[in-house]
Amino acid sequence: MSRVLVSVLAAVLAMGVLSPAAMAQPSPPDKKPPVSFGVRPANAAGPDSRTQFTYTATPGGVFHDFISVENISDQPLRLRVDASDAFNTPEGGFDLRARGVQNTDIGLWIKSGKDEIEVQPKSKVTVPFDIQVPANAGPGDHTGGVVASLTTQQTSADGSKVAVDQRVGSRVYMRVTGELKPQLTVERFDGTYRHSWNPFGSGSAEVGYTVRNTGNVRLAADQRLRVETPVSDGTEITGLPKVPELLPGNEFTLRRSVDGVGPWFFLTGRVHLDPIAPKGLQTPTLRPVNASTDFEAMPWSQLIILLTLVIAVLLYLRLRRPSTVEAPDA
Fold first, then answer.
1. In this structure, is residue 196 part of a structural domain?
2. Number of domains in the chain
3. Which residues contact 313 (CB under 8 A, 6 or more apart)?
4. What is the pTM (predicted TM-score) of this model?
5. Looking at the predicted structure, is the pLDDT value of residue 8 above 70?
6. Which residues contact 193 (CB under 8 A, 6 or more apart)?
């Protein structure tokens, strides 16, 4: 029996350089010696000082470049070299489309000069590739990666065959000239209140929202979030992470709660974003983003006590009302 293990994309996507964290270093189920390989930008003579591929292009432009593939294991490796589109994970991380998933953007524009290469132990191979920017390419940022991959058959602990696809890549950032529209949008902003049955205590508020990159350039952001009451500025939620760099069309969702919030019938959540553009690239003026949401915060325990007191007063008044006895007719 055989099954497929989801491919491994090494941390080289974070930097694009050869280091222990940038190598594909799996732990095979059948305990075979590990296979390690990596990639980095290069010129025709070999690896260079770049940590990633960065281009500025006009529609129809053509680029010729190189990637170095290094085998640091003790056995020869036959590797595939291709390209994939990039996307953000739900946590906001950077990732590339898995092998077999159709590319729709820059992954289609990149063509490797060699689909497969054989790399001898402890050696490097420099692979050329071309990027053909379509004449109708949209302005803004297009992001992907050049990937080296190795598929091996291994045996798991239960004896079944496992296809392990090890992948390691170097990021490719391309900005196509034209009208740039940096824009982050807050969507699906909501809030809930968890009340306390202690009439003298306070509850907690939880707010959540999604930040979507609705523009055409990649953006990160600093964020501030607070929960306000009708009578005060409320409480600022501290310890928020930065919104990670979002590629156009991608999103990041955050949920946070704050304690010590009183039940003021309704509360308001407010978020403020200060977008951050990629370093070294000219980007139009970035405008802050503000959004808010209102949600109920009913003081149920206080209302129950108040209702109980009202009923008690009414019963007390009724019991104290003097009774009227009519005298019999003479």
1. yes
2. 2
3. none
4. 0.82
5. no
6. 203, 204, 205, 206, 261, 263, 267, 295, 296, 297, 298
